[in-house]
Amino acid sequence: MALKASNPTTTKTWEKLQAHFETIKSTHLKDLFSTDAKRADDLTVKWEDFYADFSKNRITTETVDLLVELANELDLKDAISKYFEGDIINATEGRAVLHTALRAPEDAEVFVDGENVIPGIHEVKRKIETFTNAVVNGDHKGHTGKAITDVVNIGIGGSDLGPAMVVDSLQYYKNQLETHFVSNVDGDHYQEIIKNLNPETTLFVIVSKTFTTQETLSNANSIRAWFLKSLPQEAVAKHFVAVSTNIESVKGFGIAEENIFPMKDWVGGRFSLWSAVGLSISLALGYKHFESLLDGAHKMDTHFKTADFNENIPVIAALLTVWYNNFFQAESEAIIPYTQYLNQFATYLQQGIMESNGKSVDRDGQKVNYQTGTLIWGEPGTNSQHAFFQLIHQGTKLIPTDFIGYVESLYGNKDHHNKLMSNYFAQTEALMNGKTEAEVLTEFEGSTLSEEAIKTLAPFKIFDGNKPTTSLLIQKLTPESLGKLIAMYEHKIFVQGILWNVYSYDQFGVELGKQLAKSILKELEEDDIKANHDASTESLLAFFKKNC
Ligand code: F6P
């Protein structure tokens, strides 16, 4: 059954939220804390190894109750059932959305077109496990009898960002294989990666759901041509494998059926790292760690499906986005992990969140008259503190920020970890409290500056505070806890899409540019082809052609 479609802004609860917003919009977080001793407790959810503190947000328990009422009025519960049960919730592409089934246990049942998809999922997982073990143990040899030392993932978008982010984030758990990622059609990208590789000991994993993506096919073709300069055609079987739904095209590329790891069309690219798209993750970390990642995600799925909305981490996180985006008119959200390991996390989420909810047509096909998808950005702390935190603290924009921190570090250097985490705690406190004029003036006491100079300088040193943050404190970065974290954001995306009444699982917005690039490519390659362009594009093309 299809998802229901209602404009959230015409609901009864929206009106109530608007009225509530008027009463709370100017209240300072400091006052919310000083008038409610239970606030921190009431607005924190403790679940497994996650401590999710929402209390430094510009909300009260009444706000959460109203947002939950909105979710109920918009039938979120029913939508969640449809999501997990394989209904065609990606209606514009006529597909179910079942990344959650990929991490479900073997005895689960999820039906698509009358067929339980779980046995097929576990069959592919066993294939991934067997292949991973053979490569990692050195049983799978290259054409010349040498063990594999390097794995190159060739893919883009969801066929790159998820595996690349997970492998980088969990590098502490890595085995001896070196893993590389080629994504950009920029020829310099693949050249830089292959320049130090030995084809005899390298395994190439071509990942493309459609196997039609220009970037991936160009890189795969160029890399295969480079490979064939030193090894014969029959060596391809030992060195190239592929992940795709498009088995015929993969075979056409020259990859044997036994080297194809299939995936299904009900897995969206940006949610596909749990499928065979995660093969590079399994190879880099070993299958057991890949499985722990999936187990973690499954635990978050269960939390999301069963917890009351007031105690549900992804639901509250999504409701807060709606609160800031649609009532405070905040345009972006920052995601700041206090671990260098999650260096690629915000980049990964940019695709997940912005490709999903960057939509302006609702589920009835009408233009929306309210804001949808937020801009996502971020970098690890403490580096980001020395880069863009100035704007979050003293700029003119409201930027709700997620702070992700870990109780334990992986190598256990207490001195560094305490320094890192003192910043994690201090930043959210500083963003909330700010610094008043009186506090600034007190700081000047005993200074050699004249009264006049102090008066001139003071305004620049005042921080308004009242900047909202969410603190996610997780015990330790492990494959399981990362699985939970990624799944948390996946469900947040789903809830946002439901509330904004958009289809989160198509991505037609990336098509137009691709189509135009195809025709411009012909113009670049052949002198006698000329299309009509605007004057700007015309001149740019002429300049490029003349000087290249
Ligand atoms: O950017 C558009 C997109 O379709 C993404 O959604 C997808 O992850 C990426 O291209 C790669 O697609 P494919 O896996 O089919 O090569």
TrEMBL record:
Pfam families linked to this entry: PGI
UniProt EC number: 5.3.1.9
Biological or metabolic pathway of the protein: Carbohydrate biosynthesis; gluconeogenesis; Carbohydrate degradation; glycolysis; D-glyceraldehyde 3-phosphate and glycerone phosphate from D-glucose: step 2/4
Protein name listed in UniProt: Glucose-6-phosphate isomerase
One of the GO biological process terms: glucose 6-phosphate metabolic process
A Gene Ontology term for the protein's cellular component: cytosol
Subcellular location: Cytoplasm
List of catalytic residues: E355, H386, K514
Family as reported in the entry's similarity comment: Belongs to the GPI family.
